Protein backbone atom coordinates (compact mmCIF):
# COMPACT_ATOMS: atom_id res chain seq x y z
CA UNK A 1 0.00 0.00 0.00
CA UNK A 2 2.90 2.34 0.72
CA UNK A 3 4.30 1.69 -2.76
CA UNK A 4 1.01 2.82 -4.32
CA UNK A 5 1.16 6.06 -2.34
CA UNK A 6 4.72 6.71 -3.53
CA UNK A 7 3.73 5.88 -7.10
CA UNK A 8 0.81 8.31 -7.10
CA UNK A 9 2.93 11.06 -5.52
CA UNK A 10 5.70 10.53 -8.07
CA UNK A 11 3.33 10.59 -11.01
CA UNK A 12 1.65 13.75 -9.69
CA UNK A 13 4.95 15.58 -9.19
CA UNK A 14 6.24 14.40 -12.56
CA UNK A 15 3.08 15.70 -14.20
CA UNK A 16 3.57 19.13 -12.66
CA UNK A 17 7.17 19.22 -13.90
CA UNK A 18 6.01 18.14 -17.37
CA UNK A 19 3.39 20.90 -17.54
CA UNK A 20 5.93 23.53 -16.48
CA UNK A 21 8.44 22.24 -19.05
CA UNK A 22 5.74 22.28 -21.72
CA UNK A 23 5.08 25.96 -20.98
CA UNK A 24 8.77 26.81 -21.35
CA UNK A 25 8.99 24.78 -24.56
CA UNK A 26 5.97 26.46 -26.12
CA UNK A 27 7.23 29.97 -25.34
CA UNK A 28 10.74 29.15 -26.58
CA UNK A 29 9.41 27.50 -29.73
CA UNK A 30 7.29 30.49 -30.68
CA UNK A 31 9.32 33.48 -29.46
CA UNK A 32 12.82 31.93 -29.59
CA UNK A 33 13.59 33.31 -26.13
CA UNK A 34 13.06 31.99 -22.63
CA UNK A 35 10.49 33.65 -20.40
CA UNK A 36 11.06 32.91 -16.73
CA UNK A 37 7.80 34.53 -15.56
CA UNK A 38 6.11 31.12 -15.23
CA UNK A 39 7.33 30.81 -11.66
CA UNK A 40 5.85 34.17 -10.74
CA UNK A 41 2.47 33.28 -12.20
CA UNK A 42 2.45 29.89 -10.46
CA UNK A 43 3.35 31.55 -7.15
CA UNK A 44 0.58 34.12 -7.51
CA UNK A 45 -1.91 31.36 -8.32
CA UNK A 46 -0.92 29.46 -5.20
CA UNK A 47 -1.15 32.58 -3.07
CA UNK A 48 -4.59 33.47 -4.45
CA UNK A 49 -5.92 29.98 -3.80
CA UNK A 50 -4.44 30.00 -0.28
CA UNK A 51 -6.01 33.36 0.56
CA UNK A 52 -9.35 32.34 -0.95
CA UNK A 53 -9.47 29.16 1.14
CA UNK A 54 -8.22 30.46 4.47
CA UNK A 55 -9.29 34.11 4.56
CA UNK A 56 -12.50 33.93 2.53
CA UNK A 57 -13.45 30.39 3.56
CA UNK A 58 -14.11 29.19 0.00
CA UNK A 59 -14.00 25.50 -0.94
CA UNK A 60 -10.78 24.33 -2.59
CA UNK A 61 -12.36 23.86 -6.04
CA UNK A 62 -13.69 27.43 -6.05
CA UNK A 63 -10.35 28.74 -4.79
CA UNK A 64 -8.47 26.99 -7.60
CA UNK A 65 -10.92 28.33 -10.19
CA UNK A 66 -10.43 31.80 -8.73
CA UNK A 67 -6.65 31.38 -9.03
CA UNK A 68 -7.04 30.29 -12.66
CA UNK A 69 -9.05 33.42 -13.44
CA UNK A 70 -6.54 35.69 -11.68
CA UNK A 71 -3.58 34.07 -13.46
CA UNK A 72 -5.37 34.31 -16.81
CA UNK A 73 -6.02 38.01 -16.31
CA UNK A 74 -2.40 38.46 -15.24
CA UNK A 75 -1.23 36.67 -18.38
CA UNK A 76 -3.39 38.84 -20.63
CA UNK A 77 -2.16 42.06 -19.05
TrEMBL record:
Compartment(s) where it occurs, according to its Swiss-Prot or TrEMBL record: Cell membrane
Transmembrane segments: 6-31, 52-76
Entry GO terms, CC: plasma membrane
Keywords: Amino-acid transport, Cell inner membrane, Cell membrane, Membrane, Transmembrane, Transmembrane helix, Transport
Membrane topology of this protein: Multi-pass membrane protein
Any Pfam family: BPD_transp_2
A GO BP annotation: L-isoleucine import across plasma membrane
MF annotations from Gene Ontology: L-isoleucine transmembrane transporter activity; L-leucine transmembrane transporter activity; L-phenylalanine transmembrane transporter activity; L-valine transmembrane transporter activity
PANTHER family for this protein: BRANCHED-CHAIN AMINO ACID TRANSPORT SYSTEM PERMEASE PROTEIN LIVH, HIGH-AFFINITY BRANCHED-CHAIN AMINO ACID TRANSPORT SYSTEM PERMEASE PROTEIN LIVH
Family statement: Belongs to the binding-protein-dependent transport system permease family. LivHM subfamily.
Name of the protein this chain belongs to: High affinity branched-chain amino acid ABC transporter, permease protein
Organism: human gut metagenome
Amino acid sequence: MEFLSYLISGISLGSVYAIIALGYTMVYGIAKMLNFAHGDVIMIGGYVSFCAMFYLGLPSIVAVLMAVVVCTVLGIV
